[in-house]
Design goal:
single chain; 274 residues; alpha/beta; five-stranded mixed beta sheet
């Protein structure tokens, strides 16, 4: 099973799985069925029965919240590592949280951020635009793609990222810190204001004081080896913010997201930590 995890999490498979099972969710059969399903999907194989996880498998710190126990539309996007042995530098891409439109009482669904494992033949909706952002980055960097808030749910009409009792849990920062310690990225990139604001809540005073604007991008120093870059979201709704950032940049790419990726690549090339 380690080979399966390594295919989806690179050389960090065992460590990331241990972290997720220890601090986030630990079904009786572990996370192997979820990653096996994801591996089948990226290979284009029949998924078979979808493996849902019981609500009770969440760690106590999360499950103890009344909002979680009485929630619906639950889902976790599991992180993935897309890399090549010949590539040395790694970008950690942080979205805010998953999204789920299916409600299965007492159960939690699973997927990956931005449906990043989809093949072009299966693209629907925003998939092609998302791919236009990630593909140029994958050619030059290893990518570790994760969510700041790993679990999404709805409590009544409110989304989990709107509930302070959930977003202020220390476990979010603790898991993120461990991911960074394990992956040791050269750069961290957040996508969209929601992810930017979510990560800002997790920064300590010293990190917040390191704020700089570099080429119209808000940045912070995570530690001496890694800087955070806040980009507009790659969804179509952020088209105005992307156009404003990219004005007069004259970057290659037919789609805005491809130009945004090339803007980031140039920015990281100029950074001693990028």
């Amino acid at each position: 099973m380690n080979n399966l995890f390594n295919q989806l999490l690179g050389p960090f498979g065992s460590q990331i799985i241990d972290l997720l099972e220890d601090r986030l969710i630990h079904p009786s059969d572990g996370l192997a069925p979820q990653y096996a399903m994801l591996d089948k999907y990226q290979r284009g194989e029949d998924l078979g029965p979808i493996s849902w996880m019981p609500l009770e498998s969440l760690t106590p710190e999360i499950l103890n919240l009344e909002e979680v126990r009485n929630s619906g539309f639950r889902s976790i996007d599991f992180p993935v590592f897309l890399g090549k042995p010949s590539v040395q530098k790694t970008i950690m891409v942080c979205a805010m949280d998953p999204l789920c439109n299916d409600d299965h009482p007492g159960l939690i669904g699973s997927w990956v951020p931005f449906s990043i494992l989809k093949q072009p033949a299966d693209f629907r909706g925003s998939d092609r635009s998302n791919h236009a952002f990630f593909q140029p980055l994958r050619e030059q960097f290893n990518l570790y793609i994760t969510d700041i808030y790993k679990l999404y749910f709805k409590y009544g009409a409110r989304k989990s990222n709107q509930l302070s009792a959930y977003t202020k849990l220390k476990i979010h920062r603790e898991i993120l810190q461990e991911e960074i310690r394990i992956i040791q990225p050269d750069s961290i990139v957040t996508l969209g204001n929601a992810a930017k604001n979510a990560l800002a809540q997790l920064l300590n005073a010293e990190q917040q004081a390191s704020h700089q604007i570099i080429h119209r991008i808000n940045t912070y120093q995570w530690d001496q080896n890694c800087r955070i870059y806040h980009l507009p979201h790659i969804s179509g709704l952020a088209g105005g913010a992307k156009k404003k950032l990219l004005q007069d940049a004259y970057l290659p790419g037919k789609m805005l997201n491809e130009q945004l990726a090339n803007y980031l690549i140039e920015l990281l090339r100029q950074s001693p930590r990028g």
